[in-house]
Every structure is written in C-alpha cells, then in structure tokens.
Amino acid sequence: MKIVVLDGYTENPGDLSWKEFERLGELTVYDRTPAELTVERACCADILYTNKTVLSEDIMKQCKNLKFIGVLATGYNVVDVAAAARAGIPVSNIPSYGTASVAQYTIALLLELCHHVGEHARSVKNGDWTASPDWCYWNYPLTELDKKTMGVIGFGRIGRAAARIAAAMGMKILAYNAGHKEEEEEWYRYADLDELLAQSDVITLHCPLFPDTEGIINRESISRMKDGVLIINDARGPLIVEEDLKDALVSGKVGGAAVDVVSSEPIKADNPLLHAPNIIITPHIAWAPKESRERLMQIAADNLKAFLAGSPVNVVNGL
C-alpha cells in the first residue's frame, strides 16, 4: 500500500513522527507540493493525504490506484469531494482536534486587544520606561472585560469553548447559531444576529464558511454594531469583507480587530488589513500547538486504519 503525503510540513515540521503511517504502508512525505507536481507525486498513491494541496477531479482521474483521500485538516474544500464520491473514493477529514487550542488562541487575541502586552513589552525594551518621568505609562487604551458582552457567531465546539473561558472572566455571552439551537445553560443565551450585533462589546467568529456566512462581517453589519466594538476571527478569512473592516478601523467604528486568517493565504501584499490601524494579524497559527498537531496526526492515522479495516470514519463525501 503506497501512502503519499503531499504537504506534510505545516503539520509536522520535524517535531512529530510519521511512524504510525509507516506501519500501515510504504510512506512518502513531501514538505510541499507545487500544483504542477501534484499529478506526478500523487499518481502512484493508493492512499493520498493533503492539507492545502488542491485535488481536482482531473487530478483524481489520473491517479488510477487511488482508494482513499485523507485531509490533514477539518476543512476539506481543497478536495472535489463530489468527484471523489463518483469515483468511489472516501474522503476523511480531521474533526475536533483543535478545539482547545483555537479557543485558547481566541482569548489570547482578545487579551492582546485589551492590554497590548506585546507592544508594551517592546516599548520597555526600546527604553521608553527607562526614559519615562512617571512610574508607569500606557501607549494604548486598556480594557477590562468583566461584565462586557461577547457575541459568538457560530456556537459549535470551538465557539462554545472560547465562550466558557470568556464567561469565567465575567463576560456575558450571546450565542448565534444559524438553524441550530441547543437548550440554553445559565452562563449564556441565544440571540438572533441583529441583537448580537447591537449588544456585543466583542464579536468573535467561529462559524463555517458557507455561502450564507461569507462576508457576514461587512459594511452593513458593522453599521449595526456598537461604536468601538472589538472583532476577532480565527475561523475563516472570507467571513469578513476586509476592505469594509479596514474602513471601520480607520473611522474608529471598530475599536480593534484581531485576525488569524485572511481571504487569501499567505496574505497578499495588497491586503487592505495590512494598512489598517488597531489590528493584530497572525499567520494562521491558532490550530498549531504541538499538542493539537499530535491529535491531528493520530486521528489521521486512525482514519486510515478504519478505512483499511473496511469501516471508514470521518467521511465527508457520503461513502
């Protein structure tokens, strides 16, 4: 059984092991695969793993031995899953591996927006405190979160986990989940989108990217928010219309934003957010603590074991 990993570096830059996969077949791991080399590297595979390398119907048709596709991520839009289903090839993803890490990162972004710890630390190292006439100073507004309201758009596993941490800090939680509501608990309540936008001091995005959520943060929805609202996105970049967010940051309507994802990654030099004030941009790392990646790799191996045993799991294309 030939197993090929097309782009394994971000999952395992050298601090983890591929041994679980080596036990299951003849393993070849590429750090990265340029589009023009995808067919050449994939065509001999029985088992094919991808993270962000696109697998189109045309590519799959040229992979005559292909029996199973594993996605080293939760999102699977890089694979034409309908074409894989027509070809009888199960596609499995990795659900749930990053819940704790992404929730923790959401709060890290929020606290950085509230206290600007990194910027103040750099200021001290640059000599500003040494030269200060006062015993303390701050270069940015400092914000206390107790009794403020967090609006969570997408109240699934990650949104709920982030909200629990925020609630432990004394925040009130409004949850919005289009089309699905569980019974409320005392520490949060559900709201419709209009109420959430109007009442929240902080809005954090945790919803999937679907046609009805693409651009959910835009000029019109921002106009319905509180002045000075904070916006956090470590879900999917296209949930935000970036030019609209930049304009709202420039005007001060949005008091601050923190994003770990953008519309096109790596971020392009002309992305409007690069030139916006009061924004933190990080390079899509909320998912990436070692513990999270260890879980991801174990689930990926377990997916393959289940397929080889004749009972595939975490299948996203109905096979």
Write down the overall geometry: globular
Tell me the major beta sheet. Answer: 7 strands, parallel
Computed over alpha carbons, the radius of gyration is 22 Å
Q: What distance separates the N and C termini?
A: 20 Å
User: Which percent range describes the beta-strand content?
Assistant: 15-25%
Q: Summed up, what is this model?
A:
The protein is of the alpha/beta class and 319 residues long. It has helices at 19-22, 38-42, 57-61, 81-86, 99-115, 117-125, 157-168, 193-199, 219-223, 242-251, 290-308; strands spanning 2-5, 26-29, 47-50, 68-71, 91-92, 149-153, 172-176, 189-190, 202-205, 229-233, 254-259, 279-281. The chain has a seven-stranded parallel sheet, sandwiched between helices. A five-stranded parallel sheet has the order 2-1-3-4-5.
Notes on the protein architecture:
The chain is α/β, with parallel strands linked by helices. The protein is 31% helix and 15% strand. The chain contains eleven helices and twelve strands. The protein has helices at residues 19-22, 38-42, 57-61, 81-86, 99-115, 117-125, 157-168, 193-199, 219-223, 242-251, 290-308, and strands spanning 2-5, 26-29, 47-50, 68-71, 91-92, 149-153, 172-176, 189-190, 202-205, 229-233, 254-259, 279-281. The strands form two sheets. Strands 8-7-6-9-10-11-12 form a seven-stranded parallel β-sheet, with helices on both faces. Strands 2-1-3-4-5 form a five-stranded parallel β-sheet. Helix 5 packs across helix 7. The radius of gyration is 22 Å and the shape is globular.
